[in-house]
Amino acid sequence: MPDWLRGTFFRNGPGRLDVGGEKFGHWFDGDGLICKFSFRADGVHFANRFVRTPKFLRETALNRIDCRGFGTQRPGGLLANFLRPPANPANTSIVWHGGHLLALNEGGRPFALDPDSLETLGEFDYSGELSQFNMFSAHGKIHPRTGQYFNFGMSIAGINRQGIKPGLSIYRISPSGKLEKKKTISVDCFPFCHDFALSDKHAVFFLSSIRVEHLGKIILGSRTMADCTHFDASAPMQIIVVDLDSLDVVLRTQTAPGAVVHFGNSWEDDRYIHIDAMFIDNFDANDKLKDIWHADALGGGKFIRYKIELASGSTVAAPVCDVECEFPQWDNRKTGSPHRLIYAAAVLQGDNSFFNGVARVDVENGGMQVIKLPAGCFASEPMFVARPGSFAEDDGVLLDVVYNATSQNSELWVMDAAKISDVVAKVMLPHHIPHQFHGCFTNQLF
Ligand SMILES: [Fe+2]
């Protein structure tokens, strides 16, 4: 292990996918399981704990499914689901900011955790600033220049004769962890909007062509939200650019139909905002996610660079590389400013059918390094950790939790970020970790 590597790597993902022998109806409904790798002088220590959400506690006590989810119905038919919003499984990501460790899911408010014990402290509302209707996404971003944390959530902008008016709420949190400003803007649909791009002065939202339709059926309890989420190939992606200071909308424009599940870094010059994005043109994955135990393949997105002209709203999209990538990461010191490197989990054609590789993409010079994992090994989001005192975007390591299906154990791979084929260390866990989504690294040791 590199001598300089000290700190804590937190990860989150659905850790329990069934209860009392019944399977949840969607991967996204699994209960959030926090994992913690602590890099200390005497070695790497591992701990994990489920987030004690009301859903987790209730279903554990009853030993059966009792909550509605994104793709799961409560047993008992229409009446049992009538007017029941999906429960929050707190299972998508985790952030350490302003002295708060928060487990995140876009379907609700965060859950605060003790960073040492991973004990659940409770649902978190920033001293009452987040109401129970304020969704808080899993993809907030910390602005390195100001230390502010920006996040967002789909919300309700109001109710009129036509029914519920969809909204997008944007939150700015001070470096000390206070929610100092929030604003809700009107949008004209409930799109799948999972992530956003943060440049130095703007937040950019892509309202995708994946739309939640037939809200009435969801509210009445006859269908799940997953059943009612569809890709509309005729609906352009709407782009909304928000000023980080005022949280006012400064530009609305649109681009070709599609969806960006995850964004890479973004930056701006006097004229344009440049955005790295993982683009998809369908939502076929939804059916596979409903039965993740038998999914035959899950691909990545197309790596695309968007260039938006701020004055005119004209948008150009150009491919960056031809390897399917997802879970993009970069040197977080570069968030909002020009960057050279993006790291991602990759889907390489061949004998595997999931994330079977890791990519290091040089977006400035066009080159890329790709490693293919051994057969039966599957990668997750590669987290870049800079060597203290360094400046270069690859002077450090990538941390990647790899599932080894042959040994049925998980391994934490530590790769040299400059040459990712150099795996400098592996932490071999004596057990598996259910495959996870996102994480964060802090130099603080817990
Ligand atoms: Fe995500």
Can you count the beta strands?
A: 32
**Low-confidence runs (pLDDT<50, min 5 residues)?**
none
Question: Can you tell me the overall shape?
Answer: globular
Mean of residue pLDDT? 95
CATH fold-level assignment: Methylamine Dehydrogenase, Chain H
Report the C-alpha radius of gyration, rounded.
21 Å
Broad structural category: mainly beta
What spatial order of strands do you see in the largest sheet?
20-21-22-23-24-25-26
What is the CATH first-level class name?
Mainly Beta
From the N-terminal CA to the C-terminal CA, the straight-line distance is: 18 Å
Strand content: over 45%
Biggest sheet, open or closed, and with what strands and sense? 7 strands, antiparallel
Tally of DSSP helical segments: 4
List the domain count as a whole number: 1
Per CATH, the superfamily is YVTN repeat-like/Quinoprotein amine dehydrogenase
Helical content, roughly?
A: under 10%
What is the annotated CATH architecture? 7 Propeller
How do you describe this structure in short?
The chain is 6% helix and 47% strand. The chain has 446 residues and is mostly beta strands.
Topology diagram in text:
Layout (H helix, E strand, L loop, with lengths): L6 E10 L1 E2 L2 E2 L7 E10 L2 E8 L3 H9 L14 H5 L11 E5 L2 E5 L6 E3 L6 E4 L17 E2 L6 E12 L2 E11 L5 E8 L10 E2 L3 E6 L2 E3 L2 H6 L8 E3 L5 E7 L5 E7 L3 E10 L3 E9 L4 H6 L10 E9 L5 E15 L11 E7 L9 E6 L5 E5 L4 E2 L4 E4 L9 E9 L4 E8 L2 E10 L9 E5 L4
Antiparallel strand pairs: 1-4, 1-32, 2-3, 4-5, 6-7, 7-8, 8-9, 10-11, 11-12, 12-13, 14-15, 15-18, 16-17, 18-19, 20-21, 21-22, 22-23, 23-24, 24-25, 25-26, 27-29, 28-29, 29-30, 30-31
